[in-house]
What we know:
about 45% helix, about 650 residues, 14 strands, 3-stranded antiparallel beta sheet, 5-stranded antiparallel beta sheet, 21 helices, extended, alpha+beta, single chain
Amino acid sequence: MPLFNTIAEIEKAIDDQETILKDTRSQMEDDFDYIHNEISGFTAKGDDYHEYIDPAPGNFHRKILDGTNRALIRIAIKLPEDAPDSDKDAASDGELFIFGALHAIDQQLVNMQEPPLREGLAWHENVRGWMGLRLIVHVPNGEKNVKFDCALWDPMHMTWESGSDGLIWAANKRWLTRAQVFTEYGEEVANTVDKNGAIAIDFWDREGNSIIVGGNFLKENVKHGLDHVPAAIVPVGSMPTILEHNTSVANTTGNTIKHRGESVLAAWRHTIGPHNEEVSFIMDIARRARDAGLVYTTAEGTKTIEDPYGEFKVIRLKTGESLAPIELPHAPPESAATIDIIERGRLEATLPQPISHGGSNAPESGIALAVRIDQTRSVYSPRTEGLARIYTWLCRELILQTKAKAGKKQMKLAGFNDSGEFFRITTTPQKLDAEWFFDVRVEPRLPRDEAEEMQRAQLATLEPQGGEALLSYETAREDILKLRNPAAEHDKVIREKAERLPPVQITGLANALLEAGDTEGAQIVLQYGVEQGALPQPEPVRDPADRGGEATPTTGGGDQQGMAELAAILDEIAQALMQAGAQEADLEQILGPFVAMIDGGATPPEDVIGQLVQALQQIGAQELAQRLIQLLQATGAVPAQPGTAEAAG
């Protein structure tokens, strides 16, 4: 049964929460005006007095917003160290699914002329101190593709109630023009709203969703098919919900909840007005000094004199007459002390100098730089931690809702992973695991002494004689060098190490020449490899047509095209085995006979072929094994024997 059954009940619940959030909303409004230079924080005495508005709040907001937008977001699915390779492969695909879904969400928002998701969340963190998000995964009627419908809620206009199991209900108010109502809900509904538009209430509870426009249901508690409210509401900062000292007052959390969401002005807000007022006072004195009048003393007291500061002139005065400037009020020394006190508070509440603007002229050691950087953490950490919390919720929600509501739809996704590499992936909801544990980290891009970090990593992984290294390579990459994907970096190092092996390099060069049609050049390269000892010496084989004659050398187990294909597939096999952790010695032992075959050596014995096929099957590369056998059979190097076919699976 729905929690609320009528429009009146829904609106009453929202009104009650808006009353509790009254102080919070007023604070959000003031912060918005400070950041956008709309208010000064004090009232000038009149039209003849200055009302200075300091641009510093807006500049500070933009600097923190830029740092948050450029922060590194690392999203990883954590598995036990002894997890099988199949689980690791599935988790890797799951991470790509998340990145692809996030890219689709960004595209949807950009199409609506909104900023990408992270930029919108970062803006709300800075200005509102809260973040709100609603997600629905569904397949629209008449369409085949899964849609990730993610709406960014403005904390100024969202209300909610929470229980021990999370949100009980959540609502968001937004403005819809008549054209938007017509597009989303049809002409009949559009005719019921004012020509300028109307406020729409988007209301969600644990069972369904209702939309109210103009006091009427556009959607009346339509079931959403989930067991929870598909929304996340996250405050910035670490403050929990607390009661004020007078707990007998109704809605007692109303005055304390405004402190839970920390905007960028949280520690600075109440000194902006006094600072602007003090500067305005000094500006008033400066203007009066610039436009000061003169006292013209005469016996009658009625005489005047034209501008004495015009072109050079001689001013003639009678005895007893005088012309003197009015004595002006001076800014008391306390004004300078007041501004210094306020300025010190601003520096403590914002980013410390000189990190925030310009930097220091003096060279600084890595330790000194690290200390300065650490002083910025109190500003960035509440925002980066807030983003990590809401992205963790979003990752889990994407998995849960996709499995629950996308059926068996095949999803084709593309985007960039957290290493900045482009990818495409095709997956289904059945390949996703609702029990995956997401580790989301958000790190601002701050100045780093990368040379010193590299030295620390090398020292930490150095294995002394008779001892052991302090850290593993993976830990050093992750904790010291702060790489986004240490495992992927490990794979790259192994791959590059394997690519530097002489047999792999020479075989690759020969294969490239064959693909370019330079058969003679490929043969020269392979022969060079033999002469240098990088490739085994080819053994003479008998001509199949001469069963009783002398052994004669051959140039391989098939034609040149077949050898080119064999070289290509051997390269794929080497890559697959290296990614599975094969060592250099293993590669040379397993692949050596096949590399020799390319240069005219004998066909590898069946047990050697079976050993390679078995190794490929163990790492899940059955397709490669099958292709290898088929190629060897097609080139005549291996007859279609039952034992070989069985080994290939």
